[in-house]
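User: Can you help me understand a structure? I only have the sequence.
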Amino acid sequence: MSEHPVTAVIVGCGHRAVIYADYALEHPEELKIVGVADPNRERCLMAAKRYGFSVDRCYDSAEALARVPRFADAVINGTMDHQHVETSIPLLHLGYDILLEKPFAVNASEMRELDLAVKKTGRRVMICHVLRYARFYQEIKRRIVAGEIGDIINIQQAEHVSFHHLSTSYVRGKWANSEKCRTTMLLAKSCHDLDIMMWMMNPVRPKKVSSVGSRMMFRPENAPEGAGTRCTRDCPLVDVCLYSSKRLYLEHPDKWIVYVWADLEHLEHPTDEDRIDSFRNGNPYDRCIFKCDNNVVDHQSVLIEFEGGATGTFNMVGGSAQSMRTIHVIGTKGEIWGEFESGDLHISCCDPDEPELYRHEKVDLSEGGGHGGGDEAIVEDFIRYVRTGEQSLSCTAIENSIAGHLTVFLADDSREHGGEIKECHFEKF
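Assistant: Let's start by predicting it. Here is the structure, written out as tokens:
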């Protein structure tokens, strides 16, 4: 262990960045937060108080931070998706290493631009694909690398996005309209899952991608008869609608607190009346779920052909009762399947000496913490990467994250063209 902690500046002091930065509170010998850049002055002052640095190290933008000499080892970049590249490149040229929230780019052109900047500056950039660091997925990868199931023939993955998560983030929330947030549903929500698939297949790369999907549910024509425009103001269905803001948010005020009640974050203990006033004053989370400005898909299927002939499928389905991620990896000698949320993992291997001609093992990998423990583990690995340059099995260095992002970009391109097959071209990277 180094005698001194890695020092870092928060750029974009939102929910995700704070989760990573809080590692410094539990492990001050490993990480120290020494500054912040965010246009919200209150957030900057809260960060200075939380992490114990001078308000002189509060900046109102990444551009302002880039105008002063480098005073830390690294940056934790939690800006909005479409700001990742433009905020990161100047800081790379100043000499900062970066822990960068996913997705690290919103199109292939931006991805190439950032990749080129990393190569030119020689800095270390890790992408926050935290699922690679969850014990559940690490165990699957470990067994694949050990050759337990042979060569992979097919991977099947699914992500079920709960009805309340879908409505909060992708219909009423920040990622509902691709023209505003510049990301698609697949990129914002499920680039984690396609990154996992590419990681499991590595070093075999994707060759062809096809995808279909649509916005099926949340459209004005599907609104119940008599529905209003704002749940708590003019809708007679406020007490019965599945997506009523009263039922989802007022009755469960802590469930999506960092999204729904962002305008109340300056209050230490907001009351029910504060929340009702927030809705009265135009809070977008009170809008009728069927009458928002959302345009992203609520379900999408992706089909991938890999070099060598293996295939993969991924299904993102929004509106389920509960959130769930599943995976099934089938190889030439066996298979691995399981459910991430429960931590139940099954391994079956071909074995003619067994009565059923296979042997089966069940492993319990349930683990608490954000993303199955991945939120903390990725910060730990980033610190190691900054100090030594050595990459762990899970390491999400930018060069390891290109295949997953490229697959997402091609899948969305295919979807927009009726499922047309798109070819992967890695020679550009």
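Now, to help you interpret it: The longest strand covers residues 152-162. The longest helix spans residues 398-416. Let me know which part you'd like to focus on.
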